[in-house]
Each structure stands twice: as C-alpha cells, then as structure tokens.
Design goal:
Cytidine Deaminase, domain 2; 2 domains; six-stranded antiparallel β-sheet; five-stranded mixed β-sheet; about 25% helix
Length: about 250
C-alpha cells in the first residue's frame, strides 16, 4: 500500500506540473523506514507527452538510498504505460507509479524474460507468456493455479486463451513472432506454453529450469498441441519483449 501522505504529495506535484508530465523517484533513504518522493526535472523535448530524467538526477537519487519506484504522470493520456514507458521500465528494472486522473496506478517491474527461476504459479510458463505480452502492450488476466493443475481437471490454457483474444492457426509453416505454442507433456491437456520469437526459436520456462530460448524442433515440436495467434497482433509492438531477450545476453 502507498502511504497516504506520500500519495497526496505525489499527486499535488503532478498537478502542479500540468500540462507537462512530471517525473521523479520514490526513495528509501538510508537509516529511515519511510519512503520519500524526490521530484526530478523533466528534460524531454516534448514534455506534454513524454518524460526524461537526467543522469545527474538519477545519480543524486541513487546516492540518497534505495530507489523503490520511478514516478511519472500522464496528464494528457491514459492510465497505462506507453511503449516508451515499457522500454524505460525494462532498462531501469523499477516499479513504475503512474499518476493519471488524480490517482496513482502501480505497475510492478517485469523481470528480464530469460534466466528466471521457476516457481509454479508465480514465475512459470504462463507468467512468461503473460509478461511477454505485457511488454508488447497487452494485459492478460492472472489465473490462480495449483501445481500439477492438469491432473485436477483444470485446463489453464484452453479454457482461457480464446477469451484473451487468441485464435488457433493451422499452418505451422506460417509462424510469426508472438505466436503461442501450446505443448502437451504427460497430460491429457496442453500444460506448457512457448512463445515463438523468430528464426525457428521459442522462449519458454520449464519446471526446475531457468527460462530460456530453445530451438523449436525435436521434442517441443513433437509434443506441440496447437498454435495460437493474438487476433489484434498488428496493434502490438514486440520490440520491448525482444529487447528483453537481447538484454539477457549482456
């Protein structure tokens, strides 16, 4: 929960900078137990639609303590992160607090897509698939799921994938970036998901392993159940999730 005084301080500051976007950091200063808001100058050229924090302001905030979140506002926009915001969040690996319509909307950071530790229900193949699409600009629902849900009559993927806006495709030779490949391993229903990332490669997260790229061939191809494409894929931008894969190599 956001401290009420901190929330009011941030909202007042955002209002004072309109019609420009505000920006700043929430910092937990060393030796203190209450976070503080540190406003920063917006040095973007188009301040009404974008924000940019100078390296000097970032360093000053970092020297004060632990940066908990990056704050900015959308006085002329919607309460959702733009692709530019998602790109900035990806590189900063910070929670984003977005002020819009007098409210603070919290967007937790999305960990890099490769190298994640597996934890069923929290950091698993569905989480990876959901986060890939979050970075592309589409928010899917979070579904509660027990370990080995496929043995308890639950059908996580097939029960939900169509209502999330996906349609099945039949030609495996026409795969495109972002297609979701449902895989069935030792179960009566598909119980694993991979995302096609181009060049005959998929991104996925198997139990007891780190999330990784794999060649879509052999074992995974053999156990493919079906392939699904987001109906409005042309409205999404897969640049940010693909950049996440590139960052994992650095």
């Amino acid at each position: 929960m956001i401290n009420e005084n901190l929330k009011n301080e941030i909202c007042r500051y955002a209002k004072s900078t309109e019609p420009h976007e505000c920006c700043g950091f929430v910092v937990l200063k060393r030796g203190e137990n209450q976070p503080h808001f540190l406003p920063c100058e917006n040095v973007a050229e188009d301040k009404e639609n974008h924000f940019e924090i100078s390296p000097d302001d970032y360093l000053k905030s970092e020297e004060m303590g632990d940066i908990l979140a990056l704050v900015h506002s959308h006085p002329n926009g919607k309460p959702k992160l733009s692709q530019a915001d998602l790109q900035t969040q990806l590189y900063s690996q910070l929670d984003f607090w977005l002020v819009c319509d007098g409210k603070i909307h919290v967007f937790p950071k999305i960990p890099l897509l490769i190298g994640r530790e597996f934890e069923h229900g929290k950091m698993d193949c569905y989480t990876l698939y959901r986060d890939f699409y979050r970075l592309a600009g589409y928010e899917m629902a979070q579904y509660e799921r027990d370990d080995d849900w496929w043995e308890d009559g639950f059908n996580l993927y097939l029960d939900n994938i169509e209502k999330e806006g996906f349609a099945q495709i039949t030609d495996q030779h026409e795969l495109q970036v972002g297609d979701v490949i449902l895989i069935q391993v030792g179960a009566d229903v598909p119980n694993h998901a991979a995302i096609y990332i181009g060049d005959q490669m998929v991104l996925h997260h198997a139990p007891k392993r780190l999330s990784k790229r794999d060649l879509y061939d052999g074992y995974w191809l053999k156990h493919t159940h079906s392939i699904w494409r987001f109906k409005e894929w042309s409205k999404l931008d897969f640049t940010v999730p693909l950049n996440s894969l590139a960052l994992s190599l650095i």
